Amino acid sequence: MSIGVQPNGYPMSRSAIVGQPDIETLRKLELERRKKLRLEQVRQQSKEFSNKILHKVQNEKEKLKENEKKEKESELRRWQEERIQSLEQQYRHCLDSVRKGQDEKSAKVSEEEQRKAKLLQEKENIRRAKERGRVAMERLKQDKQEEEKAREDEQKQKLYTNTIEKLRSSLVTSRAVLKDITTNNVSNDSSSIEDDVDQISGSQHGPSLARASDRMPAQGFTNYDDSKTRTRAFDDNSDRRNNLETNGKNNLESNDLEARTKSVNFPRTNVYSSTVESSKQYDKHAYEERRSSGGNQNKNQSELRSQNKDQSDGENKETSVVEKLENERQKLIEYKLRLENEERKRHLLEEKLRMEQEAKLNKQLQEDNERMRREREEERRTEEEAMRKKIIDEEERRRKNEQKERREEEEEERERRRNEGQKRERREEWTEDDRRR
Fold first, then answer.
1. How many domains does the chain contain in total?
2. Most buried in the list 26, 185, 232, 353, measured by CB within 10 Å?
3. How far apart, in whole angstroms, are the C-alpha atoms of residue 431 and residue 427?
4. Cα 212 from Cα 282, distance rounded (Å)
5. Number of neighbours of residue 44 by Cβ within 10 angstroms
6. Per the domain annotation, does 237 fall within a domain?
7. Torsion angle, alpha carbons of 263, 266, 268, 271, to 10
8. Compositionally biased, Polar residues: which spans (predicted)?
């Protein structure tokens, strides 16, 4: 320790050094001590005041931070509530749209089902109508066929009855004429009749009675010319009838065998065969009577010729009736074939119309299905677009919120750093003041 220096650093007076107190020195020392004490008190007060101020500032900052935090929390809570409300509203809107879409879809599905049911009902009605029409046409056709068959049978029966009556009357008349002729003229012309019979049998290459049964001539009659008896068989007419029969049979077999078998054949052969046999018997009886009894040759030839002419006219009429019958039957067969062709054409036309209607209905169903598929595709596309837009909006909002939070954090960090700098500056100022003091 240096001389004249106290432990506290203050210099000592000479009296103190010497050991003798000095009033002035004591007074000065007391003043200095008091000054120092006052300075210490002031410094202590300033420190306390500064500490109070710092504490208040710190409290205020903390309050401000707490208030800001509370405000942020309240704002965040409010934003969250608003966001939740908006999301709930969007969710309700989405539910409403989904419900509406389901209702529309169910309505469309119900409409589609109703349309399909209607189309199926129309198809069923068309099928039933076609079935009823087909049954009615078959019934009508059957009734017409039965009526035509009954009418044809009636006409054929009438023609058959008329022909039989005509043949019977002609046979009766020819029998009476032959009896008159044989009773009067056979005795005078026996030799000429024998010559004529021999000539006829020779021309027929066999016995006249035996060969006459093989041919199928029409009704025969006796013609007297120049005191001779001749038997005419009308071979031409019989040949023509035979040709007509064969041609008609061939045509019937080639055109419609079933119709020919079902049709009622006119009984021609039995009538002609019976007529020919009866005429042969009449000729034979007349020939025998002429040979046995003889007769008067000077009968009125004009009457005989007229009778023979009537008989030939009757045969011609019979031939014409047969030809007419063949023609009528041919016409009936042709008419039946034409009806069958028309019925076949009608069936083909109905089948074509049915196929066209089915194709039209199938095309309409395909168009409806395609349209509904396009509508569903469009709805799905719009829903996807809406969902994509919502997702994009959500991402944009989230990004904005993140940016906002990042900016707030940066501002808080800057504020904290600024406060720390201010504190550091104040602390440095205080240390500098303390150093200065």
1. 1
2. 185
3. 6
4. 13
5. 10
6. yes
7. 130
8. 181-191, 244-254, 262-279, 293-305
Q: Which amino acid is located at 174 in the chain?
A: S
For residue 167, give both structure tokens: 């043949």
Q: How many CB atoms lie within 10 A of CB 90?
A: 13
Asked, for residue 239, whether it belongs to a domain, the answer is: yes
What is the Cα–Cα distance from 179 to 186, expressed in whole angstroms? Answer: 10
Residue 8 lies in a domain: no
| Whole-angstrom distance, CA of residue 247 vs CA of residue 258 | 17
Q: Which tokens belong to 90?
A: 């969007």
pTM above 0.85, yes or no: no
Q: Is residue 265 part of a domain?
A: yes
